[in-house]
Specification:
alpha+beta, eight-stranded antiparallel beta sheet, about 25% strand
């Protein structure tokens, strides 16, 4: 049964996000302060720099779970493969370039702008001491085996397809001012903007002894979900699927919905400089994301029409 939205402003005052507890605990010891500084400083807006498709700066209207997990696990990433996104003129060309036939929402009758998102492959080297401290202060089991230290985790993200409908605002520039301000406030012209992405599930093989579920939980809570919301999210998506998803910042509500028998998560934003809602779901090895600037009540009917 779909659950109703949870107004985020009505939670009891004693419910403190786990990330605050992590920060407070990490500051109690010198090693912890060093690790906490490196990890949480990486979540702040930094000086503009060139970024890759798989390791983007955490500024903007959403945060990818993969980026946050990577920052917990390793100090840096090695980009093995990074393909640029490529506009395509039609559905047939998109299918040929992506290797699968994308599904589009039949509820939209206007022609979309199609882009094949590039494949990527990144590897990260596990820093056991850093990860142990973060897990311990987050209240997670931190008895990692020595074999984890120095283990290499490789994440492969296949090509995907992005379909953009309506009058969508241009992505913000990479200047410092743009990172601080983000997208311009929405206008009535933006309300017909809809962005649908479809990507095969990323592949990743974590080393034995590494609890990937705890990594995703911490990443989700850092993204802004409450502990209960993070548990609901994890009950719907496995570790690999979660890595390919993004959580909007400044969330106002969060609820489970049904999309063709698959559990989806509908997240609405209270920020006026990005999509008003994001609906994510997974089906038959594909990960879908539907973002819109209009009424969030339209999200599920639009998602159901994808086919």
């Amino acid at each position: 049964m779909p659950e109703g939205p949870v107004p985020r402003l009505k939670r009891p005052a004693w419910v403190v996000p786990s990330v605050v507890v992590i920060v407070a605990a990490l500051l109690l010891t010198h090693p912890g302060r060093a690790v906490a500084h490196r990890f949480f400083s990486s979540l702040r807006i930094e000086t503009p720099k060139t970024v890759t498709a798989s390791f983007t700066a955490p500024s903007g209207s959403s945060r990818r779970v993969e980026d946050l997990v990577a920052r917990m696990v390793a100090d840096s990433l090695s980009v093995v493969q990074e393909e640029p996104d490529r506009p395509v003129p039609g559905l047939q060309e998109a299918a040929q370039a992506a290797g699968f036939t994308p599904l589009l929402p039949s509820a939209r009758t206007d022609a979309p702008t199609l882009t094949v998102t590039g494949a990527s492959k990144v590897s990260m080297t596990v820093q056991r001491s850093q990860l142990t401290t973060i897990l311990a202060e987050a209240g997670a089991p931190a008895d990692l085996p020595p074999s984890v230290d120095g283990a290499v985790i490789t994440v492969k993200t296949p090509r995907g397809v992005r379909a953009q409908y309506g009058h969508c605002p241009a992505p913000p520039a990479t200047t410092l001012r743009s990172q601080l301000v983000g997208r311009r406030p929405e206008t009535s012209r933006d309300r017909d903007c809809l962005i649908v992405t479809e990507t095969p599930t990323p592949t990743v093989e974590p080393p034995p002894g590494l609890d990937t579920g705890e990594l995703v939980r911490i990443a989700l809570e850092v993204s802004g979900l409450s502990p209960d919301e993070a548990r609901q999210f994890q009950s719907a998506f496995d570790f690999r699927t979660s890595l390919g998803l993004a959580v909007p910042r400044f969330m106002r509500s969060f609820k489970r919905v049904d999309v063709h028998g698959a559990t989806g998560m509908l997240m609405t934003s209270g920020w006026r400089r990005g999509p008003r809602y994001v609906l994510v779901w997974a089906s038959k090895g594909m990960v879908y994301s539907l973002s819109g600037y209009g009424d969030s009540a339209d999200a599920v009917p639009l998602a159901v029409s994808v086919g």
